[in-house]
Specification:
Distance between the termini: 93 Å
Radius of gyration: 53 Å
Strand order of the largest sheet: 1-2-3-4-5-6-7-8-9-10-11-12-13-14
Shape: elongated
Strand content: 15-25%
Helix content: 55-70%
Number of helices: 23
Structural class: alpha+beta
Length: 742
């Protein structure tokens, strides 16, 4: 690319000193092929000569050469886009002896909206032997996105341009060129294969009309035809070849019978890639909360590719957001100013400090106000610190913590506030733990109302406490379920009461009180129904006495408990229940003693039976349950010993040893298992030695069949015996060899 730029620079310098003699329309190949209609809508660096407003269609550096004859360069043009400023174009023509033409022109163009562009250009006009400066002004309105094919005559398919040229920069009038107004229109078909151009020049003379037509033959080739003056019937035709962003334009001049051409070469980063780069930078700025920088990058991306919805939406949404934030900031600043005027300097400064975090894009404005206010705030900090100490001493550590945090926002080096804040944090954390574990206790007790209050208090102290949040959600869910359950029980109780089933209704009301002891409806119903169920209570007491006399303690306890559920302070039922529990414990103690005697005699099955009976009388006795577990373990040990002895007698020493070891795992001091294990290991060693000697004897006598049998038995007793494995392998090999010989 650098070498190409150097070549073009040489051609550029050469073109300044070249000589020729043609007017402005005849020099530009593409404009000539369209009859000069490109005077206001020309997307080329030579727009500096035509309509400078159209320069901003070029969003990257572009270089163009127009050649009239072989080795004679008529026009050399350059343009470059500057983000946020617009596009500047420069055109130089050959210095000729007697023409009336632009010798040098520099122009600037910029879109002031998504569709409207403005531009100005200035340069030297050569008229005979005079060089006069002149000024040109242009406007350009471009079409928007392509329309559907059926909208052939939609206004969106048109682009229009206006160009006022040859404005005087000196008192002396230009001799050959007077001020002219040009208007051009471009129609672009929705299917993008047809473009129609038209323009009109208005000056002191008769208006001149131009017309042109461009047909896209293939993806890369276009055919053009045009007329420089519709009255003169002078027609031109040409071809355009475009590959990617490079273009080559040819035109045949019928008047001079010559073929002219121009080439346009853009370079630098492609437009879409550059826009994407600005967009990504804007995204990064957003992540870092650099909103103004992000807006600038989104604006540049939108300016480069204005029809891309992503860039457009990003730009306008952020712009709208910044406008809203500006209004919000102004409102808060007014509030802070009001606090400042009322003498609440600490509150005002605190609000400014919070705004610094919320509106980093306005940090300079906010910081300037904060700096002016700080000297006044120093006198308030002592007063606020004393207030925080009062709350701390009163035990309101949460509020004290908030006050000390605010002080440190304005005075980060305040050691006293730091110390109090640290102590407040520790005490608040202690309160959080106390309320949380208290709530867990209420939750397990099904006291959901108190549990909800405790977990809510934890979250007031620390809104990020995940466990408290989880428990609170579970508590509220169970509370809703409990309320539904209570409502259902109350409904059933009311129905039973209407049916005069007072005892069943009373039981439902009592269930409600177990779930919610504060339920007033259930409390009133219990008081109302107790007199009506007295006959039932007397019946329960009679049945309880009969069951107690028959030593049916379970039935007696059940009847007494039913009475106490209805009338918790019924003395006879309380006394009866106490008697039942006493007799059950006494019966359990008697059975425990009997079981221990049987266990001492080794009658473990009978002992287990007694212990189970004792547990039926007193299920809460830890002593009975321990004796039962011990007896069951002894029964299991005796069974394992019997199995081990049986396996040893069968010669299954490996299995027997495993069973004896299992016994010792459960009872390491069991002498029987230790004795049996030692004896089994001795027998195992003796049998291994005998089988090995016998097998070697048969192997030495070439009786490989019996040797193999001996070694197989040995490996059943000791699978890891390497000597037996080696002899077995050899015996099998020799036996197979003998079988092959036979």
């Amino acid at each position: 690319m650098r070498k190409l730029a150097i070549v073009y620079l040489v051609l550029f310098l050469y073109s300044i000193s070249a000589v020729g003699n043609e007017n402005r329309i005849a020099r530009e190949s593409r404009a000539k092929s369209l009859g000069g209609t490109f005077m206001t809508v020309y997307d080329s660096p030579t727009s500096a000569l035509w309509n400078p407003a159209a320069l901003d269609l070029l969003k990257r550096p572009v270089f163009e050469i127009n050649i009239g004859q072989l080795y004679e360069f008529d026009i050399v043009s350059l343009s470059n886009y500057f983000p946020g400023f617009g596009t500047i174009g420069l055109s130089l023509r050959k210095w000729e002896t007697n023409p009336a033409t632009d010798l040098f022109m520099i122009g600037w163009g910029r879109f002031i909206s998504s569709r409207l562009a403005i531009g100005v250009s200035t340069g030297l006009f050569q008229s005979e032997s005079n060089f006069n400066p002149r000024l040109n002004v242009g406007l350009f309105y471009r079409f928007s996105e392509s329309q559907p094919a059926w909208k052939m005559l939609s206004f969106e398919n048109f682009s229009v341009g206006f160009f006022l040229r040859n404005l005087r920069l000196r008192e002396k009038n230009l001799t050959d060129e007077q001020p002219r107004l040009s208007a051009s229109v471009l129609y672009r078909s929705p299917v993008d294969w047809l473009r129609i151009y038209g323009s009109c020049e208005i000056g002191k003379s008769i208006p001149i009309w131009h017309g042109g037509l461009e047909l896209k033959i293939t993806k890369f080739v276009s055919f053009r035809v045009g007329n420089t003056d519709l009255k003169s019937r002078i027609w031109f035709w040409g071809l355009g070849v475009g590959v990617s962003d490079w273009q080559l334009n040819l035109v045949f001049d019928r008047t001079s019978e010559k073929l002219q051409f121009s080439t346009t070469i853009p370079f630098g980063m492609p437009l879409e890639e550059k826009a994407q780069k600005y967009y990504q930078q804007g995204i990064e700025d957003l992540k870092q909360r650099k909103l103004k920088e992000a807006l600038r990058n989104f604006a540049l991306a939108h300016e480069l590719v204005p029809r891309d919805a992503t860039y457009t939406n990003a730009f306008y949404l952020l712009k709208k957001k910044l406008a809203v934030r500006e209004l919000e900031l102004q409102k808060v600043l007014e509030q802070a100013s009001a606090l400042e005027k009322q003498g609440y300097f600490f509150s005002a400064a605190l609000k400014y400090s919070q705004l610094l975090e919320q509106y980093p894009e306005h940090a300079a404005k906010i910081r300037s106000r904060l700096v002016m206010l700080r000297p006044k705030v120093k006198y308030d900090i002592r007063r606020i610190l004393n207030k925080g100490e009062e709350f701390f001493n009163a035990g309101d550590y949460l509020l004290a913590r908030k006050i000390f945090q605010k002080i440190l926002l304005l005075d980060s080096q305040n050691n006293e506030a730091k110390e109090y804040l640290q102590r407040s944090e520790q005490l608040v954390q202690k309160q959080i733990e106390e309320h949380f574990y208290r709530g867990v206790g209420y939750y397990k007790q099904r006291n959901l109302v108190q549990a909800e209050q405790e977990f809510a208090t934890v979250l007031q102290l620390d809104s990020t406490h995940k466990e408290a949040q989880h428990y609170l959600e579970q508590t509220r869910a169970q509370k809703d379920e409990l309320e539904n359950q209570i409502a259902d029980l109350l409904k059933k109780a009311e129905k039973l009461e209407k049916q005069h089933a007072f005892l069943a209704a009373l039981r439902h009301y009592i269930k409600v009180l177990r779930l919610d002891y504060e339920n007033q409806q259930a409390k009133d119903a219990v008081v109302r129904l107790r007199p009506k169920v007295r006959p039932d209570i007397q019946s329960f007491l009679v049945r309880a006495k009969q069951a107690l006399a028959q030593e049916n303690y379970a039935a007696a306890q059940k009847y007494y408990e039913q009475v106490l559920q209805i009338v918790p302070d019924q003395m006879e039922a309380r006394a009866g229940l106490s008697k039942v529990q006493k007799e059950r414990r006494e019966k359990s103690r008697q059975l425990l003693t009997q079981g221990k005697k049987m266990a001492a005699a080794g009658k473990w099955e009978q002992a287990v039976l007694k212990f189970k009976q004792a547990l039926n009388y007193d299920p809460t006795s830890a002593t009975v349950r321990s004796e039962l577990d011990s007896a069951l373990r002894q029964i299991n040990i005796q069974a394992l010993l019997r199995q081990g002895l049986a396996e040893r007698d069968k010669g299954n020493y490996v299995r027997a040893i495993k069973l004896f070891n299992k016994v010792l795992d459960q009872d390491p001091l069991n002498t029987e298992a230790t004795e049996y294990l030692e004896k089994t290991q001795r027998e195992k060693s003796r049998k291994i030695s005998n089988l090995l000697q016998e097998g070697i004897k048969y192997y030495s006598a070439d009786n490989f069949v019996r040797a193999i049998a001996c070694f197989d038995k040995l490996l059943e007793v000791d699978p890891e015996n390497q000597v037996a494995q080696e002899y077995l392998k050899r015996a099998q090999q020799k036996q197979r060899a003998l079988e092959k010989l036979q």
